[in-house]
Input
Amino acid sequence: MNHREDNQACFVVATKNEDKVREIREILKDFPFRIMTMTEAGVTDEIEEDGATFRENALIKARAVHEKVGGYVMADDSGLAIDALHGAPGILSARFCGKDTGYHEKIQALWDLLADIPLAERTAHFVCAIAVIRPDSSYFTVEEQLDGIFYDKICGEHGFGYDPVFFLPDKGMTTAELDPAEKNRISHRGKALQAMLAELKKT
Output
């Protein structure tokens, strides 16, 4: 199959993370392109994310997939940055304590590191950077964040990853307790995808 030719009418997301793709599809439900994962587009390679920032890693992933499929490719690199830990886990959020470690273990490890830090001082940010490569290989990046507090208990059943411990003071709940539609509207990924759409409309 000629994946490069078949993918011209698609918008390929450079990830294998099904939770992330599901959320992107929900947010972009009115998007005029068919949204495909990199696997659906025929790319199964492991991509080494060795950038120093969220934007760099997003661009690395987008370029690696674009070389295989052409067309429009987007990549999202996102994570949790805790101020008291100098921005950790940051770009290593998904790989913190090992990529095969579950999020309960990752969260517990972060609680251990923050044991002496009062809750009010556990300010944190969800960060999302998106890179888009166009069919002509030109590209752009956008980045947004959501501010909150790294909570001291798990609350909520929606979302994934660190959502159950990311507390929003103005909402009085974690992002995992938010209605999914509300979360998608205010989240770091939701805001970054809206910024992406605004940039795409310029071209």
Observations:
- The beta strands are 10-13, 34-37, 72-82, 88-89, 123-133, 139-150, 166-168, 173-174.
- The chain has one domain: 3-200.
